Amino acid sequence: MKILIMGGTRFLGRHLVNSARARGHEVTLFNRGQSNPDLFGQVEKIRGDREKDLDKLSGRNWDAVIDTCGYVPRIVRSSAGALKGRVEQYVFISSISVYSDFSKIGINESGPLGRIEDETVEEITGESYGPLKVLCEKAVQEVFGINSLIVRPGLIVGPHDPTDRFTYWPVRVARGGQVLAPDRPDALTQIIDVRDLSDFVVELIEQNVSGVFNATGPDHELRFGYLLDTCKLVSASDAKFKWAPLEFLIKNKVEPWSDLPAWLPDSGENAGSSRVDVTKAVRAGLKFLPLEKTVRDTLDWANTRPVDHNWRAGLTPGREKELLDLLQADVQ
Q: pLDDT tens across 179-195, in order?
C-alpha cells in the first residue's frame, strides 16, 4: 500500500513509518522538516506546511493518509478536503481526551464528548484540547464519511517520547534510593506502547477498517505498584517506594500527571480516567508488548540522551527530597 503520513519524524509518526515499512508498505512524509529532518533517508519527503502548502500534494494518490498532528479543526478540514479523491482512507489520530465525563468507569467509543462554546477558538489549552479534537474528528468524518478511521489513544509511551510523562519512572527508579510514589500501590494507570499503537493503526489500514477505536492499555487493570516494581526489576536498582497519600499530595501541591506523571487520582471526577474500555480495539487486533519490554526499551533510549536533559515532567531531585522529608515527618 501507499501511505501518506502527516508528520512522521518525532514520536508516534516515526514509529508509524517503522511499522508501515516493516510490513512492506511505501511511505511518503509530508511535514515542515523541522524535527529530525535527516531521519528516514530512504523515505520520500514532501516539505510543506499543512496550513498553506497542501497544493504540494496535488497530482498524487495514496491508499491512506495518517494525520498524526491535527489539533485545529479548520486546518484538519482543509487537509481532508485537499486529499478527498486522492486518498482512499483518512486516518485521524485523536485522543481519549475527547470524552467529557471521566467520572464514569469503562468509557467506550460511544461515551459523551466534550464541547466548546466558541467553535472558532484555535488556542490549544488543557480545557480546549479535547473539544478541539472532537471537532477535528467531526471534520474528517464529514469529508470522508465511511472512509474515515478515528483512533483515540491514551498516554502513548516508549522510546523517543518527547513528553517524559512515562520515561520519568524507569529513569527515576533506576537511580535507586527512596522514590516518592503516588497515592497507593493499587492505584491504576493506563498506557499504550507507541509500537503497539503503530502496528494497530497500520493493521486497521490494511484491513480497510473504518469507525472509532479507543487505543490504550493494557487489556487488564495496570496497578502503579506493579509498574514501579517492573521498573525496579528491569533496572535491578535498590529503589524503595514511599507511597504518599492523596491528602499529602494535595496539601503539598504535588500535581498529578506532571509532577507525578502517568498518574491521576482514580476517584471522583477522574474515577474512569484509567479504566477506559478498549474491548473494541482488542477485538480488532490491538496487541500489547510485555511491560518489561516497554520499560527496558524506554530506559535504554533515555540513557542515550544528554546528561543535562531538560525534563518536561516529573519531580526534580531537590523537590522530591523535600517531599520525602515532609512525608517522613508526617509519619513520625
A: 999 999 999 999 999 99
